[in-house]
Each structure stands twice: as C-alpha cells, then as structure tokens.
Amino acid sequence: MAKDRIFLRTDVGDELLKNPGGRISGDEMLLMAMIDGKTGIKGIIKKVPPSVREKLDGVFAHLLFSGYIEEIGIVATGSTGQHKQVDANGTGENHSNGKDCAGLERELEEVRAQLEATRIRQKEIEVVFHKLRLRTSAYTEIMHAKLNKRLKVITGSEISGEELRASCERELRDALEGLQPLNHAVAEQQDVLDKTLRLKVSAKQLEKQEKEREEESGKLAQSHPYYMKLRGLDFFKGFANAELLQFMDISKLQKAESGEAILNEGDVGMPFYIIISGSVSIYKHDVNIASLEQGDFFGEFAYLSGEEPYRTARVVADTACDLMMVDPLDIEFAPVQLRLHVVEALLRGLVRRSLVSSKPLKNLAQDGAGKELDMTSK
Fold it and tell me: So what CATH class is 229-367?
C-alpha cells in the first residue's frame, strides 16, 4: 500500500506567503500555494514542472525544517483503489506497523529533513561566501589603487598588485579552510544520528518480538493442565511464562499412592521432586524427621551439593501425590536465566525450611531454662 504524505501551512507559512520579502524562492512559493491540507505530495507533483520535481524533496525539507509547513497525515491507497486519510501519528484501520516503529520512522524523517536543510543552508553560505569573495577582490583593487597613490606621495614607491592580491587570497583561503571542519562535523553528526535511530528502531522491533514471544509462551503455558497449580506455588515465584513453559518441558509428571516409597535411603539418584499436590514424610534411619506438603520439594541435596548422588533419607507419600520430577542434567542445558531461577527457588525454600525447623529447638531451650530456674528456686 503506497503512502502519500499530506502537509498544511502553519501560521508562519501563511504570513510568509502573503509577504515573502525575498525570504523564500519562487519554487518554494509555488509549492506553498499548492499546500492546502488535503492534497498529498503525489497530487502536487502532477501540477509542478519537471524542473521543480527534481528538487522537490529538498524544498519540502527546507519548508518543514523552517516551520512554514507541518505534516498532518498520509493518504493510504490500498489494493481496492480506495483512498483513506490517516493522521500524522500513524493511526488508522489499514496501518500495518506498530505505533512505536511509526514514531521512530517519523523522527528519522524529521532528522533527515533537518540535515537536508542544513546542507541547503551550507550551499547558501557558500554562495554568499563566493559573492563576498568577489566583492573583496573588487574592494582590494580599489584599496590597492588608493594605497599606491598615498605611498607614491609619501615614499615615491608602490606595492605590487600581485603581492596585495596574494595576501588577500591567503586570508580568503584560510577562511575557506576554516569551513572544512564544519563540513566534516555535519557529516559525522548525520552518521551518528542515522546509526542511533537505526539502533532505536531495532531495539523497538526486538522489544515487540520479545513481547509477542512472551504472549505466545503464556498461551501455551496456560494450556497445560497443571499451569494454574504451578503458578500458585511459591517455587515458581518470579518465573516468566516462557521460563515456566521451558521448565514444564524438561520436567516429568509422576504420581504416588498413599504409603508408596518415592525415595529410599542409600539409593543412587540425582533428580529432585516438587510436590504439586498431596503430602509426604521424610525418614532417616526409620525416624520421621519432617513432613512436606504442596509447594515443597525434596531430593535436591545431590543437585546442590555436587557430591555423590546417594539418597540420605527415605521419602514416603502420606496421601496420593502429584509430583514434578526434575533431572539436574536437563537443568544444566537450559537457558542461564532459567537455571538461576531454579537455584534461587531451591535456596529460598531451604532458608524457609531452616527457619521453621529452628523454632522447636528454640522453644526446647527456653523450656529447659525454665525448668532449671524452677529447680533452683526449690
């Protein structure tokens, strides 16, 4: 679908059209008169002579940069041949690009227009410089004649016209060389601006693609039968939808009946388990040392310690359980961000478990101290 930009004269432009005062050229006057806020550039091109068409971009850039006109929208022509005016913000039913990308494209066009206006201004300065050089040359001739006349009266000698002309040319050449750094600076500025804007456009596009991937991952994750249960567990706090989907892909679902031994003390194994539903008891040397329920995990010691993968306790299901079994080898080949979240969740659970297990010891110490005081008082 082709796009046809529409411009409108500003108040400054209307005033300038009434009283140009030599501030704009004849071609600019012609285009200013054709800009009505309805006709697009393509419509204007058909009405101007070929000589004006060749420099149309530069003229529009100068008018836009000078604030004489402003862009108010585009005319989008679709495959059906119908025309539709779209506002300058890039909104409309047939607009295919994102609002952010359209804004950056407009910003890029404005910067390029400013740079084009700078080039035009530079050419104007060069023309003025050439005129000044001619006037200086003429003035030098006049001053040379006057100076020689005075020197002849005073000293009886004259200064060579070539010497005086060479001196003036040296001064003019120095002045022209002083303009060259300005030209280089303008070129470097254009290059930096172009690269910066291209990076901004790329960053916006990557951000949009990442958002689309996250939304797609969210839809896929939500279709999983255990998604809502997993989202409610503290273990998966901070997991993005894409990371939760990856975790579900590398893990395996396992069920255990009430009274079934899930792990046995002394067995060899590396996987750890997350309790989706139900509860389990942990035994060490046939002594019940802990009970775990939904959201807790067990069997992580081999993964975190990095030592030989021997089970140090027996785990028995107290009720029917739904478990998520995770092989550490699968975690090691997962993305770095996912590995960090898994380790963070394991450490967070261990800290919470140690705080809970330390409370009975504290109460026991307090009870022992109380009894000792009672014995002392007796």
Answer: mainly beta
